[in-house]
Amino acid sequence: HNLSKSYGSLEIFTAVDLAIDRGSKVVILGLNGAGKTTLLRILAGLATATAGNLRVLGQSPSETGPSWRNNMVYIGHANALKDDLSAAEALSFLAGLRGQTPSTAQIKQALERLGVVHRWRAPVRTLSQGQRRRVALARLALPQAPKLWLLDEPFDALDDVGIATLNELLSAHSESGGAALLTSHQ
What we know:
Layout: E1 3-7, E2 10-16, E3 25-29, H1 36-43, H2 61-64, E4 72-75, H3 87-96, H4 104-113, H5 129-137, E5 148-152, H6 160-175, E6 179-184
Parallel strand pairs: 3-6, 4-5, 5-6
Antiparallel strand pairs: 1-2
Helix pairs in contact: 3-4
């Protein structure tokens, strides 16, 4: 409620009110540099607002500490994958940050859902940009996906099949009561 962010005298955005209900998919559209990523980073707890009140899934970060992040996943514009890990290891590591310990079968199933299981043992550094994006997005196909998805430009680097797969994941997530907030400059 009434979120604002500025860096010195540079106002990024002011007085943003946003409510995302269970089962909804919300897209924030805007030009490059409009503050979309900054807003998502604030919602994910990776940046702080200059002013306003933040409640995510009914919780305020100041009231509950870092545990409020356990019911959300943030996938930024950068894929957050370590080049020296295999695709499977990178996905397992990212899941572990949320306290998840998916089995090898679950990792492979998520990578298969995103169309990159054939590269599950390949080092991330050998993957194309589209394949890296798919590995990062495979977090959404793991069991026990978080209730809230914060996705920064999630369709970047995806081909038509990848876009269709992500749309299917988003639809299934909202139908099961999850919510998603996405950004796009397109």
